[in-house]
Amino acid sequence: MTTYDAQVAVIGLGANGAQALYQLAKRGISVIGIEQHWSPNERSGHAGEHRVLHPLPFSPEGSPDHEILKDIMPAWKQFQQETNSNLVIESGVMLFGHKDDDEFQVIAQNARNRDGDDRNVLDAKTMRERYPLFRTDDSGMGVFDELGGAVRSELAVYTAVHGAKKLGAEVHTDTKVHGWAIESDRVRVFTRDREFTVEKLVISPGAYIAEMLPHLPIRARHLVMAWFTPEPEYMDAYSDPKQLPAFHGFIPHRRGEMIYGAGSLDKPYVKIGADFNWRLTDEIHQTDFHVVPEDLDGIRMMARERFVGLDDAPLRSVKLMDGWTVDYEALVGHYGPSGRVVLSTGFSGYGFTVAPVMGGIVADLIEKEETSYNIAHLDPNRFTEPNDSLAEWWQVTGGWNRSWSKL
Ligand SMILES: Cc1cc2nc3c(=O)[nH]c(=O)nc-3n(C[C@H](O)[C@H](O)[C@H](O)COP(=O)(O)OP(=O)(O)OC[C@H]3O[C@@H](n4cnc5c(N)ncnc54)[C@H](O)[C@@H]3O)c2cc1C
After folding, report:
1. Minimum-distance ligand 1 atom for the alpha carbon of 348
2. Same domain for 171 and 282?
3. What tens digit of pLDDT does each residue of 18-77 get?
4. What pLDDT is stored for residue 379 in this prediction?
5. Residue 32 buriedness (CB in 10 A; 0-12 / 13-18 / 19+)
6. Domain match, 38 and 162 both
């Protein structure tokens, strides 16, 4: 008879793996979390003080993500309450863009539909009056997502992992998973020092999926964020979340099509991230996390051009990674024909906002094989034939002794 170490193993304890671990433990499912570094860590996708939570969808009415986004703020608040933590910053999110940008008009329409009126759709004049820290030209406009905000990201990962431990989960950090084998009655998970035997496996390695399952159309994408200081006469304004809510700016036809960020918890600094092309890779080297001055050029330009009274000298900066899919949709669902593997990865820049809901979806799939959410658009098998038999896996990885990683 097979002896199991637990019902489930979760590979990767970042934004989504930690939530899956927590949600599984909460349902009384015995679960082991395995993290190659430490959790939280700044070698993957979830570090950098906070993440913007934007429940207002960017996609047209009727898109499947609307249902998921509707539930994210209640899910974050429930998680916060259950763990007696202080994670969510309820500042709202200022979304700014251009009135001739059709995609931004979709967001404005979503706000009208959700709020029942036009109160949060702001023309350029109103933007300049109410939000003078954002530099708005005559073609600009804003949409205030009054339900959104930010979440303390490292603390959220920490809270989920420690909350799961309290509920009985077993956690192994500094333990890199080198491979797994799916057999008729079990999944064997291989690390340097030992093997774990479980009934089911959750794979949630963030950008490292590009090395782990390289046939999937996901690549590791580097992203940089930096912190800036307001000029002395603007320090009070930048310290006030009413004047500087979390923000997400859409800048069409420009190098760097969007920026995002929030006031630092270390007031009065402002953290800005942006969408420049810092490199896609499927070979992740630990030295890749070093920020060079050129990495900051675009964000410094944004600090000058998009904000009033912000000095463009970065005080500190981080370079992280996320897994980016070819269609920008995550891969969440059963992977392969065995029914034993659930993938939760490829979040393409939005994976923190949705993490507690995704954790619940993963737990549904493990516990009941199905979820009430429509996740057809996230189907991991939408790109490729199943490839999780033992023989195929060994062929992909080169076998037991070889890791996919070049670390
Ligand atoms: C700079 C930046 C800004 C962002 N801003 C936002 C935002 O404002 N709002 C938002 O919603 N999202 C944002 N995102 C996206 C969001 O942070 C990511 O989508 C999210 O962190 C992905 O979660 P994850 O669990 O898939 O991966 P991660 O959080 O990267 O965690 C994966 C974990 O798996 C571990 N791991 C990998 N391989 C192995 C292995 N072989 N064995 C064991 N462990 C392994 C890693 O070490 C890591 O800890 C941003 C991302 C970045 C990088």
Report:
1. 19
2. no
3. 999 999 999 999 999 999 999 999 999 999 999 999 999 999 999 999 999 999 999 999
4. 95
5. buried
6. yes
Give 386-392's long-range contacts (Cβ < 8 A, gap of 24+). Answer: 386/335, 386/336, 386/337, 387/213, 387/215, 387/336, 388/182, 388/335, 388/336, 388/337, 388/338, 388/341, 389/182, 389/336, 389/338, 390/181, 390/182, 390/183
Mean pLDDT confidence for 165-172: 98
Ligand 1 atom, smallest distance to 353 CA: 11
Q: Which residues is 262 bridged to in the sheet?
A: 271
**Domain end residue (candidates: 294, 325, 356):** 325
Please tell me if the CB atom of residue 13 comes closer than 6 angstroms to any atom of ligand 1.
yes
Do 206 and 172 share a structural domain?
A: yes
Specify the residue with its C-alpha closest to ligand 1, atom 30: 45
* Lowest mean pLDDT segment, chosen from 128-137, 150-159, 378-387: 378-387
Q: What is the mean pLDDT of residues 213-239?
A: 94
Average pLDDT over residues 211-220: 89
Report the pLDDT averaged over residues 389-398. Answer: 36
Cα separation, 255 vs 257, whole angstroms: 6
Please tell me whether residues 236 and 382 are part of one structural domain. no
**Pocket flag, ligand 1, residue 219 (CB < 6 Å):** no
Ligand 1 binding pocket mutation candidate from 352, 358, 393, 397 (most atoms within 8 A of CB): 352
Query: What's the CATH number where 302 sits?
Result: 3.30.9.10
**pTM reported for the whole predicted model:** 0.93
pLDDT at 124 > cutoff 60: yes
What is the pLDDT confidence band of residue 256, given thresholds at 50, 70 and 90? low
**pLDDT at residue 217 in the model:** 84
Domain housing 226 = 88-150+220-325
Which atom of ligand 1 lies at the shortest distance from residue 19's CA? 25
Q: Whose alpha carbon is nearest atom 20 of ligand 1?
A: 351
Nearest Cα residue to atom 18 of ligand 1: 351
Question: What rounded mean pLDDT belongs to the chain?
Answer: 91
For ligand 1, whether the C-beta of 359 sits within 6 Å is: no
User: What is the distance in A from the centroid of ligand 1 to the CA of 39?
Assistant: 11
Expressed in angstroms and rounded, the spacing between residue 345 Cα and the centre of ligand 1 is 9
CA angle 275, 378, 282 (to 5 degrees): 50
Contact 393, 188 (CB under 8 A): no
* Residue where a domain terminates, one of 325, 348, 375: 325
Pocket test for ligand 1, best of 38, 347, 348, 407 (most atoms within 8 A of CB): 347
Work out which ligand 1 atom sits closest to the CA atom of 51: 8
